[in-house]
Amino acid sequence: MLFPTPTFAIFFAAVLPLSWLLMGHPRIWRPAMLVACYVFYAAWDWRFVLVLAGSTLANQAVAIAIDRRERGRLRKWLLIVGIGANLAVLGYVKYEDFFLTSAHNLGAWVGIDIPVPMAAVLLPVGISFYTFHAIAYLVDTYRETSRPTTLAKFAVYLSFFPHLVAGPISRPHEFVPQLDAPRDARRIDSSRAYLLIAGGLFKKLVIANELATRIVDPVFGAPGRHSSLELLCGVYGYAIQIWADFSGYTDIAIGVALLLGFRLPQNFNAPYTAVSLTDFWGRWHMTLSRWLRDYLFFPLAHRYAVGAASRVTNRERVGTYWSLLLTMLLAGLWHGAGWTFVAWGAIHGGGLAGERAYRDLRRARGLPAPRPTVVRTAVHRIVTFNVVCLAWIFFRADSLSTAGEVLTGLFTQWGEGAPLVTAGVLLTIAGGIAWQYVPARVPDLLAVRFSRVGFALQGAVLAVCLAIVAAMGPEGVAPFIYFRF
Amino acid sequence: MTAITSSFARNRIESPSSSVEDGGLHGRLPATAAKTVAVVFIALLLGAVLDARGLRKTAAIQPPGLRRDVAMAVTRPLVSFSSATQLDSLRSGVKDALGRGDDDRITTTIVLPEPKVGPGRSSRSATGTGAPQKPARSRTTPRRPAPATSFTAKHPLRVWPAGDSLVIEPAYAIERLVARLPVRVLPVEGRVATGLERPDVYDWFARIRQVAPSLRGGTAVLAFGGNDDNAYMTALPETVRITAFWSPEWRREYGRRAGGVMDMLANRHAHVVWIGLPMTRDRRQTDRYAQLNAVVRREATRRPAWVTYVDTFWLLSDHGRYAEYFRTAGGKLVQLRQPDGVHFRPAAADMVARAVLKAIRKHVRLEEE
Questions:
Q1: Which of A230, A314, B183, B236 could bond to A226 as cystine, CB 3.0-4.6 Å?
Q2: Which of B36, B105, B188 to mutate to test the interface with A (most CBs of A within 10 A)?
Q3: Predicted structure pTM score
Q4: Domain ranges within chain B, ordered by starting residue
Q5: Contact A471 B11 (CB under 8 A)
Q6: Taking the domain B123-366, which CATH number applies?
Q7: How many CA atoms lie within 13 A of B170 on its CB side?
Q8: Do B40 and A459 touch (CB under 8 A)?
Q9: Residue B185 in 3-state DSSP?
Q10: What does the pLDDT look like over B22-47, one tens digit per residue?
């Protein structure tokens, strides 16, 4: 059930009043919301619900077992088994093909014929995201950041339909307390929700879909047949497409949750205004970068942290660079089993490590941090955007050779015609970049004004917005890019 | 440890729970649940009226069944009300401004070149069974192809890939394959979930009639049928009733449509390379695709001068069985299909593209640059 469809509109029109009617009775509300979430998920394939329910029961059992143990080895082993089981399921459904073919090819190389079974593994939509939620729950229980909650609350946390299939990834201590007491039916932040939903629909249906069909898909389909200008616009177009697609989805998710009275964490903050890769990862898919930082990077880097905080050893420095690289390589592999994703991770990991090393070098020489001037900031933004776009080439290409063709073509196919570079394409790309630079106070002010309008007028304005976006969008809705991750 | 905390992302996520406690509204007036529900209902209901024609189209193109019936019943009064009050002019205005005024049109009749043979003979020939018959020509199909033309860099062959989603990857593969040949591949028109059965979803007949004149001397690479393996066919002649997939009526009508498409292009002196349907992971779907292929192949063999059928059913199979992988000459396994077990991965698309190019070369001479 995709958000921008009539089916979801009907589903939500039923769930919204029901949720508020039952909100005062948490013992009824939780199972009712759980049923709604499972119905939402079963709309893809009813078997997905079995996987989700199984994951809920297993993770709750492990979390309780961890919580009941005092310090000791068993507690640590329970955590390792819990995380391992989550990753094993994720790995099996996501990478089964990759491992089987790799094993076969390796076998062929050494002269052993390893048969490849033709098992069609069902890949549940959004499994990565609820696995991340589950791992966060286990680790936070182990670290005693939060205690296990009841099964019903945990089940709602894991399956809450606004964040079920593509995030944002909420931490247990952010979401579960919101389930402790009924949400306040007199204080709904609805005007912000409407703005997020309308903006998210526009990003997905108009910006992302237009760029995908008009330039990105043709260019990446046969890069050798397109001019350098088309390739350049295709790469920039993809940067805007993936931002519009994914941030559009999370905007709708956050807006829908707000209407139900729940707050989900922010996931995007004008990522293409970043002045460095470190800054970029604080603005792009913020909840994933936070998850990677807290559950992967910190444990990795901690292995090298031996000295006092005031005195940083070389071992700690190198360990930090290595941990950054490894974290991003694993983040790349999470997106898919392929060398293109490894290259994407290597560019980001290498870039983050390089930035860190440069900063360390300046500090070691006693140089102060450079003063941000207008020109310096502009140059940093342009360089960062282009490094991110370079990484996007590998992310979008179906193979390293395709990525190589795009990169080569960017420099060697100038002077040819560019029929795909239309005014509409250029305008959409420019609009997508300009969107990043809209000051945060503008939508805030808009939401404040909109909150003061009568409810009938609010409904009418929203209806007009929905109708215009529906008319501008293409027939049918392409799946969100991040659903396959 | 403090030294490494700022190395990764400088994440400044506002904590949702804390922002609830401190108000978190930043000057926005909060709404009550009742008002929120009211706004959502007004937005959805009025939005449905404003978007009635789009919703009607969405309802009409659903697969047959209860869901479609309900959607059609609900949208019928919605469209009447919307057009009576002229509230649908917002949508039509936006569509017209974008040059997509036809998006909401629901085709109920199709126009095809008149076949020479009667329906009786056509139905027999469309079964795909029995002894090979002498290919019959459509009345309007030119008897002979234009003499094999030589194409050069100055006068490249124009190739138009079109069809359902199965044409998209092969189209890109063709573009890659002909990089050094005098071929200009036009932008692929791959429309997801469309076919020849349901012009109400997308009217390919009108589109092909529109494109054919500009394709004179060129080649159309078509792939249809991926969504046509069912009994539901719209825009039928009044006298035709279809009760089941692969019934004589179905075969006759589908053959008429596939043949009509071929004739529309051939009449404008454009060659047709028709990419047949592949085996899929689903055995029952594979059986239906084989039946569909039989109808199309029969129509293609009736127009040998203009139409070449490319058989992907066997091309991508492993000795007659569905193949997920293909073993290269070096013994390496490459995956052929997408996770859905139907669509092509680039490796499979490359194989199809080579077969298409071979078919194109039957009709034209392409001088390497």
A1: A230
A2: B36
A3: 0.82
A4: 17-97, 123-366
A5: no
A6: 3.40.50.1110
A7: 35
A8: yes
A9: strand
A10: 457 778 888 899 999 999 999 999 99
